[in-house]
Each structure stands twice: as structure tokens, then as C-alpha cells.
Amino acid sequence: MSTLGTRKTILITGAAGFVGSSMADRQLDAGHIVHGIDNMITGSKSNIQRLQRRANFHFDEIDINDASALLRVQRAHYDEIYHFACPTGVPNIRTYGEEMMRTCSTGTENVLRIARQLDATFLYTSSAEMYGDPDVFPQIESYNGNVDPVGARSSYEEGKRFGETLVRLYNEKYNVKAKIVRIFNSYGPNMSKSDTRLIPNTFGNIKADKSIVIYGDGNQTRTHLYITDLLTGLETVMAKGDCASPYNVGGNKQLTINQLVSALGGVLGRKIPVEYREHYIEDHRGREPDISKVMELGWQITTDLASGLAEMCREYGIATGARVNEKQPLSKGRATWSNGALHGSQTEGEPSFG
Ligand SMILES: NC(=O)c1ccc[n+]([C@@H]2O[C@H](COP(=O)([O-])OP(=O)(O)OC[C@H]3O[C@@H](n4cnc5c(N)ncnc54)[C@H](O)[C@@H]3O)[C@@H](O)[C@H]2O)c1
Which fold has domain 198-222+252-343? Predict the structure, then answer.
């Protein structure tokens, strides 16, 4: 708990979501005061119920696109603003494309105005999706991406790109201390159970004893970052990052979806049934961040995939076949691949894949 002198007041938009609620917990743990706002479009009530049991958490259910509602609930002072609000989930692009674009544009500008007025340090969560279907690997921040402005995923991709442009504008024109993080696929507890993204969807199906559905052939690659490492990355950029200069934060190991499923099978100690279906939307072949820029600020990955997946099994109440010591903190080691199998680093208390 910080002393009163260092206690911050922090605004978190998208506080009912996966990352927003986890960041709220992290800041409350550090003794800060958190004001969360959310319109519940993809957020989860249980996250807010959990946070509302904690001292120093205040919540308002409002839409950040509504400037007058924001003004009504705005506090007199914020030290920092973590701006997470945005509808997420690839299948939601069809349903919520308009809401995604509006929240990334109008909503982001409304929140930037608060940062300007209150001289708060602001952090915008952009996405790896701003690179589109990349033809450069790994994606370095200076790579401008490969986005089709009228493509099926463009509401989200172009929305995030426009949000970044607003951040640069507010920094250059109004001197707002505004930072940008491009988040690559992240996972962990507190993802909504109705979340359509790969990891919660997969765990939900395993829990319900259903096959995992893979869209496409499963050879598309992604990296996967555990939530605690993501939060540290966001805090690092908030504290030390340059303004209006994007930082990739993501995992350092590309896996195909098929490899991810077999890694999960390793954690569960059984083969997971898979059903392949034609993709419902154009998919990106791969994604891999160059994380050297954020590492120069002192950030590093501390949780390996094996430990993160075991933690997800605990969250979903799914028995693991691997030995997992509940009392041990998450591993500080790295997962490695050899002969097509995943091995956690074999230190005491970590899941074993042997
Ligand atoms: N989790 C990831 O792997 C990942 C990857 C890339 C980018 N991001 C970005 O990080 C941020 C947080 O992602 P997440 O995984 O927590 O998603 P999430 O869907 O769990 O949380 C987003 C929250 O924003 C809220 N929201 C949406 N529009 C709003 C509006 N107009 N007003 C108020 N609240 C609104 C939603 O209800 C939800 O609670 C998002 O901006 C997302 O684009 C996340």
C-alpha cells in the first residue's frame, strides 16, 4: 500500500473488460484510487461486482462516446488514465463495427479531452490489428502495416489506427502526455465467459466437453502473453514511455493455433478433440511483435505459456494432467519447443510436460 503522498487517482475506461478489470485490481493492490467506467457492451458484470467489493473503487456505467455523460461523472483530478474501452472480439466486428469505429474516434477524443483538461498522463491501448495482415516479420513499430481500409476487419483495424493518430495530435497540439501501446494477443483470468476470442472460447468448450473449433487450417500463427506481463508492460510505458510513440507489448514465441491446442493438451494430459471449420471472416496469416523497444524500458516476459495455460485451467475449474503446485507463483522461466512439443522450464513447482 502506498503512502497517501504517492496515492494516485486513476481513471480506467473499459473497466468491466478483461484488461481493464485486471488493471483496476493491480492499481487497487498498489493502494491507488480507481474510477472505472464502462458501457458493458463486451464487458462482464462479474468483473465489476468483484471490483465493487474493494475499497477505493468507484464505477459509473456510461458510454464514453457520450461527452456530457462523461462530464457528469468526471472527477476533479486524475493522475493517470488507462484507456481500454473498445468493443473487442473478431466475430463482433460484424455486429459492433460501428461501435468500434465510434469508440476509437469520438470516444477516444472525449477521453483525451479529459486528459488535457486535468493534465493526466494518458495511455491508449491500440492493437496488433493495426498492422493488418502483415508482410513483415516480426512487426516493428516503424512498420506501417498492411490494412485494407474496406476489408472485413477494417472497422477495428482502422479504428485503432485513427485512435493512434488522435493521440499524436493531442500530444503535439495540446501537449497531452499521451502514450500508445499496441497490444498483441493476451490472455488470463477475468476474460468474459461469453468472449468469442480464441483462448476463452477454447476453455469454454473444454469445460462444456465440446470439441474445440478451429477456423481455417489452424496454421495461422499468433503469440500469447499472460495478463500479468501485459499489465507490467502497460505500467512501464505509462511511467517511462515516450509520448505519441507506439510500443508493441506481446509474447515472444509464435505458435500456430494447432500448436497452441497441442500445448493445452499437454497441460491437460489428454488429446483435445478439434473440429475445423471454414473461417467466417478473412484471417491474418500470422502476427509476431518486435518487443525490443519496450524491453529497452526494462520490461521483460516473466510468465511462460505452460504456466499461463495451467492458471487458466484453474480459473475454469478444469483438471490438469500436469503437476501444478497451487502455492507456487507463476513461473519465471520460459516455455520452449522441441520435436513439436512444449516444455515448461523445469524448475520446482512448475507444470511438467515430460
Ligand atoms: N486482450 C487482448 O489480447 C487485446 C489485444 C489487442 C488490443 N487490445 C485492446 O485492449 C483494450 C482492452 O481489451 P480487453 O481484452 O480487455 O477487451 P474487453 O472487451 O474485455 O474490454 C473492453 C471493455 O470496453 C468496454 N467498452 C466498449 N466500448 C465502450 C464505450 N463506448 N464506452 C464505455 N465502455 C466501452 C466494453 O464493455 C468492455 O468492458 C481494448 O481497447 C482492446 O482493443 C486487447
Answer: UDP-galactose 4-epimerase; domain 1 (3.90.25)
Q: If you search the block for the grid coordinates 481493464, which residue do you land on?
A: 20
Residues 207-263: tens digit of each pLDDT: 898 998 888 888 988 999 999 999 999 999 999 999 999 999 999 999 999 999 988
Q: Which CATH fold would you assign to the domain 7-187+224-249?
A: Rossmann fold (3.40.50)
Choice from 12, 13, 18, 202 to test ligand 1 binding pocket (greatest atom count within 8 A of CB)? 18
- The residue length of the chain stands at 354
Residue 44: CB within 6 Å of ligand 1? Answer: no
By DSSP bridging, strand 178-183 and strand 121-127 are: parallel
Residues 68-84: pLDDT tens digits?
999 999 999 999 999 99
Give the separation between CA 21 and CA 16, rounded to whole angstroms. Answer: 5
C-alpha cell at 66: 457520450
Active site residues per annotation: 156
Grid cell digits, residue 219: 496454421
Q: Which of 97, 75, 100, 76 is nearest to 86 (CA)?
A: 100
Q: pLDDT per residue over 151-195, tens digit each?
A: 999 999 999 999 999 999 999 999 999 999 999 999 999 888 777
CA-nearest of 3, 55, 2, 70 to 24 is 55
> In this structure, how many other beta carbons lie within 10 angstroms of the beta carbon of residue 322?
18
Closest listed residue to residue 120, CA positions, set 258, 243, 20: 243
494518458: which residue's cell? 122
Is the omega angle on the peptide bond into residue 134 within 30 degrees of 0, that is, cis?
no
Asked if residue 90 has its Cβ within 6 Å of ligand 1, the reply is: no
**Residue written as grid cell 468448450:** 205
Q: Mean pLDDT, to the nearest integer, of 199-214?
A: 88
**CB half-sphere exposure, 164, CA atoms < 13 A:** 23
Domain boundaries, the chain: 7-187+224-249, 198-222+252-343
Confidence of residue 4 (pLDDT cuts 50, 70, 90): low
